[in-house]
Amino acid sequence: MANNKSYIDQYGVKTSKKLEKIKITAWEWVHDGGNWARKRDSIKMIKLRMRFEKEAERIGGVKYTFGDCLA
């Protein structure tokens, strides 16, 4: 592991524990059966996206986007 606590996961993707937590939180919230149209532009979605982008920038070399995590 590097000093910034990033690592390569089992699929060969660069990530960190914090980034994984953000991805899981976002995915579970989006796929909980609620209305996607209301969630898409919500404050919670904006905050999750900002947290994801900040962490991805911090560890550097992340080759996927927030949208990829929700698919």
Total helical segments: 4
Write down how many β-strands occur, each being a DSSP E stretch of 2 or more residues.
Answer: 2
- Major sheet: 2 strands, antiparallel
Stretches where pLDDT falls below 50 for ≥5 residues?
none
Gross morphology is elongated
Strand order of the largest sheet: 1-2
Secondary-structure element pattern, one letter each: EEHHHH
Percent of residues in beta strands: 5-15%
Structural class: mainly alpha
Proportion of residues in helical segments: 55-70%
Q: Report the average pLDDT across residues.
A: 88
Work out the radius of gyration. Answer: 13 Å
Head-to-tail CA distance between termini: 28 Å
Oligomer, anyone? single chain
Describe this structure in words.
- With 71 residues, the protein is mainly α.
- It is built from four helices and two strands; from the N terminus they run ββαααα.
- The protein has helices at 17-30, 36-40, 43-59, 66-70; strands spanning 6-8, 14-16.
- It has a two-stranded antiparallel ribbon with strand order 1-2.
- Helix 1 packs antiparallel against helix 3.
- It is elongated, with a radius of gyration of 13 Å.
